[in-house]
Amino acid sequence: MSKGNGNEGLGCGQRIQKNLITGFLSLFALLPLCVLHFIGAVLSFFVRAIGYRRKVIRKNITECFPEMSVRERRHIENKFYRHLCDVMMESVKLFHISDAEMRRRVTVNGVEALNSEIADGKSIAIMLGHYGNWEWVQEIGRYISSDAICGMVYRPMHSNVWDRVFLQMRSRWGFLPIPQKKVVRELIGMSMRKQSWAIGFIADQRPNSASLNHWTYFMNHDTAYSPGAEEISKRVDAAFFYLDIARPRRGHYTFTFVPIEPDKDDKDPYAYTRKFLEMFEQTVRRDPSMWLWSHNRWKFGREKSSGEVKKS
Predict the structure, then answer these.
(1) Contact (CB, 8 A) for 262 and 115
(2) Which of 11, 247, 290, 307 has its CA at 20 to 30 Å from residue 281's CA atom?
(3) Which residues lie closer than 8 Å to 74 by C-beta, 6 or more apart?
(4) Closest CA to 143 of 189, 182, 96, 175
């Protein structure tokens, strides 16, 4: 899968627009991260003031934490706005950040077990959510065995120009972004060539309205989930790992690989996905402010599906 220069398939005007955007972001990224965090703090004040997706955010937090007081839920909401703007600034910083600074700001734990699986010829399905700074996850590629191709599955943006901007940001260190519609072909193809892979699946996304076929209980909700990552990975006998994300302090993250081990008596065909959601819920409850509350995760209810809800 060729990465090229990120301009393939763009018209002349789109290439100019894309290069102007990336040029500006690259200059902006020259600012120290502490300055970018200050800008993010100012930005978060205005984002709160205009009420960016406030209705969705408050509804989600209220329904997930009905036991909390209004004051406690507003505290999560305010911290979320601050964190969201931090993630925006930290993502821009990817256009100009040194290897040494990334190593100083990101700690990766538990990679030995993952590399042991790769040494045995296995591929790895890494499951994670929109939590912490998921854009900095590409740093894990430095720690994973060079015998495996490292990358992340992503949903292309509607704007071709902005999609290419984000692809450039997400492949800074050779991390391979794979479009969702091509993931089966790419991963099965690699496996047929005896090429191991370690690919991240952001698996907390809401399925579309036509795919509400699999349900579990997550964050106090009947929740639809997509089993695609598990279906693909099982076809090539991949090992499953959860990437737990923590933020010990601002601008610093800890990524920890944890094997996903479903309960022995769980006979569900998608036990790995349901176990991931169980593990991910524990992470969200540990520090709720770092999840993407502005995403309308429960837009479609159980009534959209004829399937029976299963509690994990």
Answers:
(1) no
(2) 307
(3) none
(4) 175
- Per-residue pLDDT tens listing for the chain (312 residues): 444 446 667 788 888 998 999 999 999 999 999 999 999 999 999 999 999 999 999 999 999 999 999 999 999 999 999 999 999 999 999 999 999 999 999 999 999 999 999 999 999 999 999 999 999 999 999 999 999 999 999 988 888 898 898 888 888 777 899 998 899 999 999 999 999 999 999 999 888 776 788 899 999 999 999 999 999 999 999 999 999 999 999 999 999 999 999 988 877 889 999 999 999 999 999 999 999 999 999 988 776 554 444 443
> What is the pTM (predicted TM-score) of this model?
0.90
Contact 130, 292 (CB under 8 A): yes
Helical residues (DSSP H) of 31-159, grouped into ranges = 33-50, 54-64, 70-93, 99-105, 111-119
Strands (DSSP E) found in the chain: 106-109, 124-128, 148-154, 176-179, 196-202, 215-218, 221-224, 239-249, 252-259
CB 308 within 8 A of CB 147: no
In what side-by-side order are the strands of the sheet with 239-249? 106-109, 252-259, 239-249, 124-128, 196-202, 148-154, 176-179
Cα–Cα dist 286/147, whole Å = 34
Q: How far apart are CA 126 and CA 149, in angstroms?
A: 13
Query: How far apart (Å, rounded) are the C-alpha atoms in residues 278 and 255?
Result: 18
Residue pair 123/236 in contact (Cβ under 8 Å)? The answer is yes
For residue 24, report the phi and psi dihedrals to the nearest 5 degrees. Answer: -65, -45
Q: Long-range contact list for 205-211, CB < 8 A, 24+ apart? A: 205/130, 205/155, 205/295, 206/295, 206/296, 206/297, 206/298, 206/299, 206/300, 209/300, 209/304
Element (H, E) at 231: helix 228-235
Instruction: Indicate the pairing of strand 196-202 with strand 221-224.
Output: unpaired
Q: Which residues have C-beta within 8 Å of that of residue 298, sequence separation ≥ 6?
A: 60, 63, 206, 221, 223
